[in-house]
């Protein structure tokens, strides 16, 4: 699968709309998002005079997942899922280096076996962002942008990786970028499918495990363009060093979504919309769905 060209029909970064978020927001400037509670620190957003050129992709992987123990090593058509993800990510053109960050020697040994660079991180990392930060500190080379590539998206498109990198490179006010796609109506009530709303300039307003926006009828509106968060995200490397020092925030804790700590502290997050059939592996049952889809697309 690693050498299989990306199918243009299955996924591409949206570019046909002249008023797309990415185009409209390229040179958008502004101060930090207003912070509702006076208890939060007043933070100013940094601007960067130099182009953020050096990019590292990091695939955080842990063995002890609460919902699916050993998930990175689960075989998908004969290859471990972490290898499937790594092979797809290697096709991205914006990455200067790609590494796997893990706290488990079994995962590390597996990744070295198929040629991946591996960085061992501590078990104390609370989420993928903190694991990416620890891995970044252990890299000898200095990078401007870090891309957090979800290890449970074995069909991630390299164009999406490139899209979030370019979005962050083009926006000096943003310290974070991520991608969304259209939400399927049947996923509206699934808490594992994180929803997102954005403003008119393509900056994130909120993320939720519940359906957002919500209407008075309490029903899914078949005509509303709900958005599904894909999980892949890129950070300014300087901001990534700050992130672990920020205290957990109320919304982050309530929703269990790390992106909310970024927004609650007043930082800007750029969002791009892409065409992508999201096929993450959250449960063992999802593996069979992924394999069936790969057979349909003749991916091996």
TrEMBL record:
Chief subcellular location: membrane
Subcellular location field: Membrane
Coiled coil: none
The keyword Nucleotide-binding is assigned to this record: no
Enzyme Commission no: 2.7.7.38
Transmembrane segments annotated in the record for this chain: 20-43
Domain of life (superkingdom): Eukaryota
GO biological process, one term: carbohydrate derivative biosynthetic process
InterPro entries reported for this sequence: Cytidylyl_trans, KdsB, Nucleotide-diphossugar_trans
This protein's pathway: Nucleotide-sugar biosynthesis; CMP-3-deoxy-D-manno-octulosonate biosynthesis; CMP-3-deoxy-D-manno-octulosonate from 3-deoxy-D-manno-octulosonate and CTP: step 1/1
UniProt GO MF annotations: 3-deoxy-manno-octulosonate cytidylyltransferase activity
Any Pfam family: CTP_transf_3
Enzyme class: transferase
Sequence similarity: Belongs to the KdsB family.
PANTHER family: 3-DEOXY-MANNO-OCTULOSONATE CYTIDYLYLTRANSFERASE, 3-DEOXY-MANNO-OCTULOSONATE CYTIDYLYLTRANSFERASE, MITOCHONDRIAL-LIKE
NCBIfam families in the record: kdsB (TIGR00466), PRK05450.1-3 (NF003950), PRK05450.1-5 (NF003952), PRK13368.1 (NF009905)
Protein name: 3-deoxy-manno-octulosonate cytidylyltransferase
Organism: Nyssa sinensis
